[in-house]
Amino acid sequence: MSEAGGDRRFRILLWIVAVGFFMQTLDSTIVNTALPSMAKALGESPLSMHSVVIAYSLTMAMLIPASGWLADRFGTRQVFLAAIVLFTAGSVACAFSTTLSQLIVSRIVQGAGGAMLLPVGRLVVLKSVSRDQFLPAMSFVAIPGLIGPLIGPTLGGWLVQAASWHWIFLINLPVGIAGVIATLMFLPDSRDPAIGRFDMVGYLMLSVGMVALSFSLDGVTDLGFERATVLVLLLVAFALITGYGLHARRHPAPLFPLSLFQIHTYTVGLLGNLFARIGSGAMPFLIPLLLQVGLGRTPAEAGMMMLPVAAMAMTAKRVVTRLITRYGYRRFLVTNTLVLGALQATFAATPSLPLPAMLLLLGCYGAVNSFQFTAMNTVTLRDLDRAGAGSGNSLFSMVQMLSMSLGVTVAGALLGAYTAHFGPIVPAGALTAFRATFLTIGLITCLSATIFWQLGPGVMAGAPHPDDDEAG
C-alpha cells in the first residue's frame, strides 16, 4: 500500500472512532431537553422520565469494564461493529417506543452499544498508531466527543420543536449505517491471543452492586419501593462492593487491581469525581426540565438557553491549565468545587431572574463546570504508570458514567420527594420543589470539596490528558 493510501486509511480510521465517540456522548444529553415532550406523548409525568437517562448511563457504567476484554478476545473490528449495530438498533427502538417501559428497555440496548464505542475505539487507535502519533490522534478523536454533550440539549430542543422527539433517536440511523460500512471496509481487526480469563465474579459483584445502589436511591419516589426494600438494596450494594475489595485481594488477575488505590492522586481523584459529578450529572437533567415545566419555555427555547453553557465550557479550556499551574491541584479544586456548588444552588433563584441574568448564570456555570472536569480528570490520571493505565482508565470511565447515573437518580428522587412535600405538579409547587432540589444538589457538591482537600499541596499541574473532559 502506498504511503498516501496508508495516510488516507489512517484518517478514515480516526474519523470512524471520532464519530462513534460523538454518537455515544451526544445521546448522553440530547434527550434532556426532549423529556417533557416525550412524557406528554407517552402519558407520563415529566418528573418520572429520569429513568430514560439513568437506563442509558447505568448500562454504560456496567458494560464499560468488560469492553476491553471483549475486544481482545473477539477482535476489535467485530466488537466495534457490534457496538454500532446495537447502538443504532436501540436508537430505532427508542423512536418507535409507545410506552415508558419500552423506551427504557430500548435505552438499555442503546447504552450497551454505547458502552463499547469509546473504550474499543480508543483501543483501536492505541493498537494502530505509533507512540509519537498517539497523542495527536487521541486529541482528534476526543474533540467530537467533547462537542456532543455540549450541543446535545440545543439540538434536542430544536428537533422536538421542528419535528418530534422521535428524531432525536432517528438521526442516529444514517450515521449508524455509514459507520457499519466504514468499519467493515477500514477498521483493522486485532485481538490478544494471550488474553486470560475474564474476572466474571468480580464483574458481577461490581455490576450488581451498582444496579442495587441506583435502584435503592430511586426506589422510594419512582419505583414505589417500601423503605425496607430500599434498605435491603442499600445493604446488598455495600456488601457486594465490599466483597469485591476482598475478592480483588485474592484473585491473581482481578478486574481492577487494588494496587491502583496505592496511587494517592488516583484514589482522591476517583472519589472526588464520583461525588462531585453527582451534581454535574444532575444539572443537565434539571435545567431543561426547570425551563419547560417550571417556567413554561418551549423545547427550542430551553435548548437555545443552554448555548451559553456550551460556549463558556469551550472557552474556559483555554485558561484552565494556567490556573492549575499557578495554584496547584488542591487549592484550585477545593475552591472551584465550592464555587461550582454555590452556582448550582444559585439556580434556585432562576425563576425570579431576568433573562440576561439567567443567561449569565448559565454561562458562568458552563465555565466553572468545565474547569472542574479538566482538573478532576487530569489529577486522577496523571500518576498512572503504563502497567496500570488500562485498568485505571477503565475504572475511571465506569465511575464517570456511574456518577452521571447517580446524579440523575438523586435529582429525580429529590425532585419527586420535594414535589410530594410542597404540592402537586402546578407551577407554584413545581418551582418550590425545583428550588429545594438545586439547593440540595449544590450542598452535595460543596461537601465533595473535602475530598480534594486530601491532595498534597505540592501536587502541581502536568500536561493535560488528551481526554480531559467527558460526556457530562
From TrEMBL:
Q: Where's it found, cell-wise?
A: Cell membrane
Q: Which domain of life is it from?
A: Bacteria
Annotated TM spans: 12-35, 47-67, 79-98, 104-125, 137-159, 165-188, 200-217, 229-247, 332-349, 355-374, 395-420, 432-453
What the entry lists under CDD domains is as follows:
MFS_LmrB_MDR_like
Q: Which Pfam families match?
A: MFS_1 (PF07690)
Q: Which GO terms describe its cellular component?
A: plasma membrane
> What is the membrane topology listed in the Swiss-Prot or TrEMBL record?
Multi-pass membrane protein
SUPFAM superfamilies referenced in this protein's UniProt entry, alphabetically: MFS general substrate transporter
**What PANTHER family does the annotation carry?**
BLR6921 PROTEIN, MAJOR FACILITATOR SUPERFAMILY MULTIDRUG TRANSPORTER MFSC
Provide the protein name.
Answer: EmrB/QacA subfamily drug resistance transporter
- Protein source organism: Phreatobacter oligotrophus
